[in-house]
């Protein structure tokens, strides 16, 4: 899968996803300080699944038509222990393959998904 990890996404989780063979661009390394709109535009343009802890992307997704080839995954979970965060987050994300075309929220014990506007 093709992911765009927001600036707030842990580097250890980026590394774990890459180690699993996924194409991951990390905003903290490639374009630090980018606005949420710029990050969302990049995800849309490059048809990537955005990984973030930032709730503001929910409102932006409602206001911005996004192509069906991208998606947004908002993580709303308590942070795991620092030494485990990469594996825990990567396992949560890799447990499904239907992130594309959805705004998804991962919460403790459940995942909520709604289709993105086209």
CATH topology: Rossmann fold
Radius of gyration, whole Å = 13 Å
Report low-confidence residues grouped into runs of 5 or more.
none
Shape: globular
CATH architecture: 3-Layer(aba) Sandwich
| Share of helical residues | 25-40%
Number of helices: 5
Number of strands: 6
Classification by helices and strands: alpha/beta
Largest sheet descriptor:
6 strands, mixed
Ends: how far apart?
20 Å
Strand content: 15-25%
Question: Regarding CATH, which class?
Answer: Alpha Beta
Kindly give the count of domains: 1
Calculate the mean pLDDT score and round it.
Answer: 90
What's the arrangement of strands in the largest beta sheet? 2-1-3-4-5-6
Protein name: DUF5615 family PIN-like protein
Pfam families: DUF5615
Domain DUF5615: 1-108
Task: Give your account of this protein's structure.
This protein has 118 residues and is an alpha/beta fold. The protein has one domain (2-115): Rossmann fold, CATH 3.40.50. The chain has helices spanning 11-19, 27-30, 36-46, 56-63, 85-94; strands at 2-5, 23-26, 49-52, 71-75, 102-107, 110-115. Strands 2-1-3-4-5-6 form a six-stranded mixed beta sheet, sandwiched between helices. α1 (11-19) packs across α5. The longest helix has 11 residues, at 36-46. It starts with a strand and ends with a strand. The relative contact order is 0.20. The mean pLDDT is 90.
Give a topology summary.
Elements: E1 2-5, H1 11-19, E2 23-26, H2 27-30, H3 36-46, E3 49-52, H4 56-63, E4 71-75, H5 85-94, E5 102-107, E6 110-115
Parallel strand pairs: 1-2, 1-3, 3-4, 4-5
Antiparallel strand pairs: 5-6
